[in-house]
Amino acid sequence: MKNIVIVGGGVAGTITANYLAMKLREEIREKNVSITLISDREKQLYEPGLLYLIFNRMEESEILKDVKYLLDPLIELKIARATKIDAEKSRVELENGEVVNYDYLVIATGSRVAPEEMPGLVDGGHWFYNLDGAKRLREELARFKKGKVVVSVMGIPHKCPVAPIEVTFMLHEFFKIHGVRKDVELLYTYPINRVFTMEEVSDLVQKMFDERGINYKTFFNPVSIDPEKKVIETLEGEEEPYDLLIAIPPHKGSQVIIDSGLGDRDGWVPTDRYTLKAEGLENVYVVGDATNLPVSKAGSVAHFEAEVVAENIAAEIKGLPPTARYFGKAMCFIETGFSEATYIWFDYETPPKFVKPNKFIHWMKLAYNRMYWLTARGML
Q1: Nearest to 205 by CA among 191, 190, 220, 219
Q2: Which helix (H) or strand (E) holds 185?
Q3: Which residues form the FAD/NAD(P)-binding domain (predicted)?
Q4: Interval 86-104: pLDDT, tens
Q5: Model's pTM, two decimal places?
Q6: Residue by residue, what is the 3-state secondary structure of 49-108?
């Protein structure tokens, strides 16, 4: 029997598992193949929903689902934390002492926010990149009526690269709706020499910031936060005061990747950009945020990568050539407020393509928020 093991119960892990179950249904039923998914939590969080939760436009119940509910019944689910991946022995060690052997491994361990990596941020700032942080920010935004709000990107890469832009546009409209925009200064900061990594996106966003009276600073690299003075101190020697700091905290890969020696110092796994195999490991694939690839750490990327990995593993098991390749495909919606949105798509060779922000794309984004769970189940 061939054992396929997937570590990670987020979007990348569940989609890959479900695609594999569809492609190998007969082999699983004949007990020639098994698929096991290891997740350290019972519920999956639809992270793009956090952007709406902070404005009280989505509730927790809408963005949390049992991982078991999302998986094909032919997939075995183990709820446990993986503590070590032993690539030499082809096995995964769990915190409960169990060892799971594999013939094929899919690393889908994702990324995590590490606010503790920025001195003073835990006490001096807010963020919306996990559920607890988003819930705290929701309460703060409901109270905030006057002062300076700083949206600060504190490191690259980070999950959902366009989310800092989206939240800035949505803050502008949120404060307008509540009649206090004239009393609120909005400042967006980014660590490189433009407001986004991709020049085509940066040019459009900068123009839209100017139209809305949103201030921005580039080459802005925070090194510490002073919670008492409410000041951001930067590598460039600046001190930026704030009344409300909304940070995009530093990100790291999963601790199990670091502890297993499979990644770089931040926990990103060196990955072949086309085959999605972990470098130097023929039977280990990497999907989603866990890779070190120069692509967005976004759900769409995980989706497109999962298709390639599932196709190639299934082909190998069936004795067919694994010829599927990933070419950097990504697609991201960008909310420009509460009523209009645009989107971008790109790949390794194609720069981002835009359409003018409009209401139809905004409603498409809201519709996808509702349909996401079908994607996680491999049905969309």
Answers
A1: 190
A2: strand 184-189
A3: 3-292
A4: 999 999 999 999 999 999 9
A5: 0.95
A6: HHHHHCCCCCCHHHHEEEHHHHCCCCCEEEECCEEEEECCCCEEEECCCCEEECCEEEEC
230: containing domain? 113-247
C-alpha distance from residue 11 to each of 64, 71, 136 (Å): 12, 11, 24
Task: Give the separation between CA 253 and CA 269, rounded to whole angstroms.
Answer: 8
So what's the pLDDT on residue 378? 84
The torsion defined by the Cα of 216, 248, 62 and 354, in degrees rounded to 10, comes to 50
> For the chain, which residues score pLDDT lower than 50?
none
Q: How many domains does the chain have?
A: 2
- If you search the block for the tokens 């995009």, which residue do you land on? 248
Question: Does some domain include residue 368?
Answer: no
- CA 122, 125, 127, 132 torsion-angle sign: positive
Rounded to whole angstroms, the Cα distance separating 38 from 321 reads: 28
* pLDDT for the residue numbered 379: 81
Residue 55 has what pLDDT?
A: 98
Instruction: Select from 152, 172, 164, 168 the least CA-distant residue to 231.
Output: 152
Residues in contact with 360: Cβ distance below 8 Å, sequence separation at least 6, in sequence order: none
Question: In this predicted structure, what is the pLDDT of residue 353?
Answer: 79
What amino acid is encoded at 230 in this protein? K
Residues in the chain: 380
Q: Is residue 152 part of a domain?
A: yes
DSSP string, 228-248: TTTEEEETTS-EEE-SEEEEE
User: What tokens does 27 get?
Assistant: 């082999």
